Amino acid sequence: MKTTTVNGIELAYQVQGEGEPVLFIHGAIWADFLRPLAEQPAFSEFQRIRYHRRGYGESGGPAGGFDLQAADIVALLDHLELDRAHLVGHSEGAMIALVLAASYPDRVRSLALLEPLPSSDWLATSDFADLLGILGPAFEAMVGHYQAGDVAGAFDALFDPTGLDWRTASKAVGPGVADQGIKDAATFIEVEASALVDWTFGPEQAATINSPVLSWCAASENPINPATRAFLYNLFPHREEAILADGNHFSVTTHPAAVAAPIADFISRHNAPRHIRTERSASAVPGRTG
Fold first, then answer.
1. I need a labelling partner for 281 at 20 to 30 A (CA). Which of 5, 135, 188, 217 fits?
2. Main-chain phi, psi angles of 81, to 5 degrees
3. pTM strictly above 0.85
């Protein structure tokens, strides 16, 4: 991967192909979880941009909140001289994509949101408030295992309650991916986990987003999934929706072709010819680092 300096850190990134730019934002723990998705033939007509979020993989730290990570993406787009990009965000990466689209709506061509965690304040007043009784103990157990030096056990505590197999998912990406997650566990457990719990996002923020939205979700028994679908419907009543039968939250690694197909179709229908930055557009963007 190449690197560039953004907001005081070295950010690792990779650009493949030509065409309308599509930027992939990975979720928690594993920096390369979206590599299988980005490499699917369905995206061959696009310029694919992957990067490691701050504190993960080949990127430097320290970790930071969602606002800072949104600014990191803007700085990366500036470095690549791109006016706008289609965003594909998975899990926590989808939450960052939402913050980016609300804060810098002119930088986003479209939003493909792959199962973001609903904000806690929305959950608390929704029909899915009982999920807080699952998530809270899972996060507490994760921290307990981590503090005891058992990082793998911390991941088990986080994912077992919703039936997710992180070992199989990381193995599907390739060698060394599971070890990278273990090495970078502090970024998520010590910093980002609290950001997930404290994250607030509702219709007021969503109203500033003017790009097309796709809600992607797996049709699994994970109790978070119906809450995510309801959350995104509440934010974006006119969003498009794609549901993967017999999939789960980690299908981005285990069944990437099936995940890629509806996302690539969505992006293709919202292509636009202009995506190279101009000096005029650059000067109008808040937070530009040059």
1. 5
2. 60, 45
3. yes
